[in-house]
Amino acid sequence: MRNKKHHYRELPEEVRSSLGHIPDQFVLYFTSRFPLLLLHTYEAMEWCADEGVFRAYYPEEIRLRMKDEIANEELKRKVDAQNIQSTEWVRGQPAKGKPPTKIAV
Asked: Which PROSITE patterns does this one have (predicted)?
């Protein structure tokens, strides 16, 4: 969308006619075909809300919430990485050459 808008004048007349006039018809062209695209993009980019270039678009409330989500995601990745590096279990199977761990009941 952004690229088409910024290069709108360079597009062939047939394409410009299909997209409509900027901004209203142009936005309608995309929102009628992809109704959740803008909302999805905004929500997906919340992960970048604390970066300088995006700060103006997201309130402090979202930046704080995303810091918590990012911290939780990083912790989950670390735990997953440790589990994958386990010498006893690889993808749910005992490592080759090692007997299964006995669990006391």
From this structure: KEN (PS51392)
pTM exceeding the 0.85 threshold for the entire prediction: no
Q: SS3 string of 65-94? A: HHHHHHHHHHHHHHHHHHHHCCCCEECCEE
CATH topology of domain 2-73: de novo design (two linked rop proteins) (1.20.1440)
pLDDT top residue among 98 and 76 = 76
pLDDT at 79: 87
**E strand intervals along the chain:** 89-90, 93-94
Domain boundaries, the chain: 2-73
Q: Enumerate the β-bridge partners of residue 93.
A: 90
